[in-house]
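Structure in, sequence out. Go:
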């Protein structure tokens, strides 16, 4: 059988050889591919992360506390009719400024003029009766002294004279009342201010106790600014003051600055003039009032503004830019740089905001260096490349950013105006 089929034996041998060598070939190919993939997946070598750092400084830091506030006229007067009658004329321009003593409305004076004439006539009658009584008493007295008339006649004459005097006084009061009522038909402004629109039109019949409201006059200078402090905020301030973490100015002489709706600052500053000693049972807050000069009438009653109260100081406070503080899974942290320019995470307790910075209540010490810019690229215990240093200075709240030997003036971390985050809180203190 072997002789006739030599090629068949050779093919079987070759097949057996290929079959035994195939697994080795596949294994070698797989190892080569694996080595190639591993080499391709390795990241390219990167340089040290570039960061900007800042040295932590503790210093006494002024703080501002902001509140949502509303303006109120320091004198808001209701202009009312004081007598019943018809309204003849409105003599002022609605919405315009009026002066003290300026006539605003006129009522029909005719009925009151007639009432005055009647009262004057009654007074004249009583004065005539008094004259007769006085003359009669003058005749009776000498006759009674000579016993020509009885004592009763003298007493009657004296009583008549006194009754006549009382009647004259009563008639004089009626005349004065009639004059007052006539004067009330001309309605004047008691102060200088801005007059509102007229609540009653010409020809209306006014009833003093019901439909007597005619308009309002608002005094614009000075202007009141009212805001409220919650019970929780007040307790927190008291605790911080007691612990020495917050210092109020002597005699609580705070300075109040007002920011308008468009973000502009009102040029006049004010002071706190009143604080309600009782909390509101409805809102759980108590009212605080500031007074500001308003010579140009820029502020109008009822405006919503931001009241910024200045004068408090946090002693030995540590402020860091907001962008240096990162949010971890359970807490805030910063990157602290050691002497070898390696960074370590440090959990910190954050407090209130101050401009674009954050008060750090616990976790940092003066003299330490923290990462400000580039914190997102920092890896623990990996050397860093410091390309800029934010060095706080004591002159004017400025600091210098040193980059490549050049210096750029920036606003100090203690003073506040580093580039802002997307939506920072406006000032320290609880949000409102």
């Amino acid at each position: 059988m072997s002789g006739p089929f030599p090629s068949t034996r050779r093919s079987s041998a070759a097949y057996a050889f290929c079959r035994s060598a195939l697994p080795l070939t596949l294994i070698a190919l797989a190892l080569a591919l694996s080595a190639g993939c591993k080499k391709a997946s390795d990241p390219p070598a990167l340089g040290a992360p570039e960061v900007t750092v800042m040295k932590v400084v503790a210093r006494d830091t002024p703080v501002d506390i902001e509140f949502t506030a509303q303006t109120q006229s320091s004198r808001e007067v209701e202009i009312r009719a004081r007598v019943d009658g018809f309204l003849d004329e409105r003599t002022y321009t609605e919405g315009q400024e009026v002066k003290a003593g300026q006539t605003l409305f006129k009522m029909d004076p005719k009925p009151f003029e007639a009432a005055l004439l009647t009262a004057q006539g009654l007074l004249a009658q009583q004065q005539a009766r008094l004259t007769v009584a006085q003359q009669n008493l003058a005749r009776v007295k000498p006759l009674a002294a000579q016993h020509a008339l009885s004592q009763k006649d003298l007493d009657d004459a004296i009583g008549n004279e006194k009754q006549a005097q009382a009647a004259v006084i009563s008639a004089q009061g009626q005349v004065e009342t009639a004059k007052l009522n006539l004067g009330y038909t001309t309605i004047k402004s008691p102060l200088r201010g801005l007059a509102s629109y007229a609540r009653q039109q010409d020809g209306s019949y006014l009833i003093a106790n019901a439909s007597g409201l005619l308009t309002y006059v608002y005094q614009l200078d000075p202007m009141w600014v009212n805001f409220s402090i919650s019970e929780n905020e007040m307790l927190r301030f008291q605790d911080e003051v007691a612990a020495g973490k917050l210092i109020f100015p002597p005699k609580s002489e705070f300075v109040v600055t007002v920011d308008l709706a468009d973000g502009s600052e009102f040029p006049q500053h004010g002071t706190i003039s009143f604080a309600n000693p009782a909390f509101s049972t409805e809102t759980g807050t108590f009212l605080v009032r500031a007074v500001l000069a308003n010579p140009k009438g820029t502020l109008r009653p009822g405006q919503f503004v931001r009241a910024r109260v200045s004068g408090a100081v946090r002693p030995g406070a540590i402020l860091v830019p907001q962008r240096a503080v990162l949010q971890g899974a359970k807490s805030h942290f910063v990157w602290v740089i050691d002497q070898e320019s390696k960074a370590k995470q440090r959990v910190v307790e954050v407090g209130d905001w101050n401009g674009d910075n954050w008060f750090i209540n616990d976790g940092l010490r003066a003299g330490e260096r923290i990462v400000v810019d580039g914190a997102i690229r920092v890896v623990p215990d990996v050397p860093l490349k410091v390309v800029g240093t934010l060095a706080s200075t004591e002159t004017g709240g400025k600091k210098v950013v040193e980059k490549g030997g050049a210096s750029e003036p920036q606003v100090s971390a203690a003073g506040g105006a580093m580039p802002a985050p997307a939506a920072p809180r406006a000032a320290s203190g609880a949000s409102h």
